[in-house]
Amino acid sequence: MATGSNPAGPAKKYNGIVFMINVLVNIKLSIMSKILKADLGNAGFILSKLGFATFDTDRSARKISPKRGRSLLIESYQFGVSFWDTSDDYGTHPHVAAALEHVPREQVIVSTKTCAKSGKEAKEHLKASLKELETNYVDIFLLHCVQADWIKDCRRVLRELQEIKKTGVVRAVGLSTHSVAVVQEVANFWEVDVIMTICCNAEQSMINKFPDYIPLEDGSIEEMFCALETAHKNGEGTIAMKVLGSGCPPLTNHYRLAIRTIAKLDFVDARVVGVGSSREVEKNVKAFSLARGNRASKDLLISRILQVFSDGK
């Protein structure tokens, strides 16, 4: 053997590389599991800042079975996404019900919706939803797609739903909408615990070009941000939906920027993003985790990588 050679050198270097790879994998999993939680306005409970939107899960374009939907929901839960959004017209109550069998019910926030136009009808729909979801309560119950010409009657129905909260079958009530005017009006309603609305990184030119993907009924995204900020200051819980539009190409092509932009909004408590595959679960979680809210995870990753190189010297 030549003088001065060190046969242990290559082996040590190889082991160092293997160790570094393992560290990176573990840190990746660590980062992706650190989805932060936030108070939902004054509703009295917390939820993960990133939520699983089941809107597309049962649609014909990507028809996902309840069994597969269950797997995706459980996978998202393992990454810290414990807020699951559904509706009685999505066809995904069975998917959520299947997943709830495998996680502690009290660890998951379930939101569902109804298109009911009266208190009586809403109560009937709620009863049916509880049966389909196979649970004795839902955390959030929303009037679905409220338009500007129904605000007065909507308030009356919400007042009746507030009474239902006393029974324990619902923890918070509110509405979902595509209308800036609605959010502006209900931002001061005591009957509203939660508002879910369109909130995405889209200029008016994009909205005009892709109206089917970003169905904003009136106003602009900037005006929606202002209305949501007012609602948030008044103690209402705020949830962003259609963060990627309904698959809007400019948003999905730049999904990291689209998700991170909305993740940084202080006046938004949670964001729901559609998922159709394990890859999308990981993509969404990673994009959200690396936003400002999880800066500590980025710092941890950098410090651990530097430590690996330092130890290898």
Q: What distinguishing features does this structure have?
A:
TIM Barrel, eight-stranded parallel beta barrel, 46% helix, 313 residues
The CATH superfamily is known as NADP-dependent oxidoreductase domain
As a percent range, the share of strand residues is 15-25%
What order do the strands of the largest sheet run in, or round the barrel if closed? 3-4-5-6-7-8-9-11
Provide the CATH architecture.
Alpha-Beta Barrel
Fraction of residues in helices?
40-55%
Largest sheet: number of strands, sense, barrel closure: 8 strands, parallel, barrel
Q: Would you summarize the structure shown here?
A:
This protein has 313 residues and is of the alpha/beta class. Helix content is 46%, strand content 17%.
Helix and strand topology:
Blueprint: H1 8-32, E1 37-39, E2 46-48, E3 50-53, H2 66-78, E4 83-85, H3 93-100, E5 109-114, H4 119-133, E6 138-143, H5 151-164, E7 170-177, H6 180-186, E8 194-198, H7 204-209, H8 221-233, E9 237-241, E10 243-246, H9 249-252, H10 255-263, E11 270-274, H11 278-289, H12 295-311
Parallel strand pairs: 3-4, 3-11, 4-5, 5-6, 6-7, 7-8, 8-9, 9-11
Antiparallel strand pairs: 1-2
Helix pairs in contact: 1-12, 2-3, 6-8, 10-11
